[in-house]
Structures are given as C-alpha cells and as structure tokens.
Write a structure and sequence with these properties.
With 160 residues, the chain is mainly alpha-helical. It has one domain (8-159). Helices cover 61% and strands 0% of the residues. The chain contains six helices and no strands. It has helices at residues 8-31, 35-40, 55-61, 63-66, 91-110, 124-159.
Length: 160
C-alpha cells in the first residue's frame, strides 16, 4: 500500500514528471562535479578482470550493433561533453572523452536509485515497473561506457 494514494492517471503523470526531474537533476548535478574528480577517482571506474577489457560486453550484448543509436547526452544537457569534440586520435581529446565516460557511467548508476522513491505513491506492482524502467534505461548506457573505456585507455596508452 503506497504512502500517498493517487488515481492511476495521476500516478502515471507524477511518475513521468518525477523521472524527467530525476534524470535532469542528476545529469546537471554531475556536470557540476569538477572533471578532475573523475581523474582522481579512476579506480571507481576501472574495468574488472572478468570484463576482459570490455570484450565481454560485445560478446554478451553485441554493443557495437546498437550503441550508435543512443542519443548523445548533450541533446538534453547542453554543457555536457559532445562526442563531436573528439578530434581523431589527439591524446588530449581522448583523455577528455575518457573522463567524460566516467562521468556518464556515474550519472547512469545514480539514475537507478531514485526508482525506490516510487514506492511512496505507486502501487507495489507499479513501483517495481519503475525500478525495471530505471534498470532497463540505464544499464545499457553503463554497458556502453564499460565497453568503450578500456578501448580508450588502450588507445591513450599506445599514444604516449
């Protein structure tokens, strides 16, 4: 039983508005984190040995086939890192992109957690649907970051 009872139409409206607010707020807050933080805390985003430098994601989910269909986050957050700023194999651009991929992964992990707030006004089944939405929307974007980053790190290491 939800803490706040709402008619189903209002639940849908409140859920939609809440997700827009959560996604945009988390993204904008992450943009305020100095990029140096992501450089200093690189071990939080380090690939695990079982990820086989990102190859596991390609093998399991065929990431290369669908990652190009994911819209760039700068469509929604104008001061984000636009991949068009990536200039060939320039080490500085690659490093900036690497740091921004850490920021993106952080944003998508953080974007899953607000799903639990939906238990306050949703029936249990609808709250679990919101959790499922949070996971299904964010995990593929995390997978793309986990797939791309080891490749970027290899490229950067070879250019030094």
């Amino acid at each position: 039983m939800p803490l706040i009872e709402l008619p189903l139409l209002w639940v849908i409206i409140v859920d939609t508005v809440a997700w827009v607010i959560f996604h945009l707020s988390i993204s904008m807050a992450a943009q305020r984190i100095p990029i140096d933080w992501f450089a200093q805390h690189k071990r939080l985003f380090k690939a695990f040995p079982w990820e086989q430098e990102g190859r596991i994601w390609q093998r399991l989910f065929r990431v290369k086939k669908w990652k190009g269909y994911i819209p760039d986050g700068t469509l929604f957050i104008s001061n984000g890192y636009n991949k068009s700023q990536l200039h060939g194999a320039d080490a500085s651009s690659l490093y900036d992109f690497l740091l921004e991929s850490r920021r993106a992964e952080c944003v998508h992990w953080l974007s899953i957690f607000p799903g639990f707030v939906f238990f306050l006004w949703n029936p249990v089944w609808a709250a679990w649907l919101n959790i499922a939405y949070a996971v299904l929307f964010n995990v593929p974007l995390i997978v793309v970051q986990r797939f791309n980053r080891p490749r970027l790190e290899r490229l950067l290491n070879s250019s030094r």
